[in-house]
Amino acid sequence: QLQLVESGGGMVQAGGSLRLSCASPGFSLDGSTIGWFRQAPGKEREGVSCINMNDGTLNYVDSAKGRFTVSRDNANNAVYLQMNSLKPEDTAVYYCAADIRPESAYYCSAFRLATEHYDYWGQGTQVTVSS
Question: What is the rounded distance in angstroms from the CA atom of residue 127 to the CA atom of residue 10?
């Protein structure tokens, strides 16, 4: 059973950086697309970024472009989200999730990150950015 474990959240001041990690201990992520989502209090969960583990297709929500970088480490079954120039509006619980459908790379390239396409979710990690 695929399980995702996140780490790296925390509290930083505006302009700071954090690096989130998403690992799948003992289970290959090959063929899947890993999405990063976030949910702020009182708001819907939104897609932030995605990366396909096979071909490296990746994408970002407009508000993250130029500030966040998603990367993969196939050998270690891990995905990372480097977040720079953080803003208070980035404050949320961040989740990684896996879409194992064969067409998942297409949906990532089109940035169609629908939560119902992601069957496996991490526990979430809190990111708090103070002004």
Answer: 5
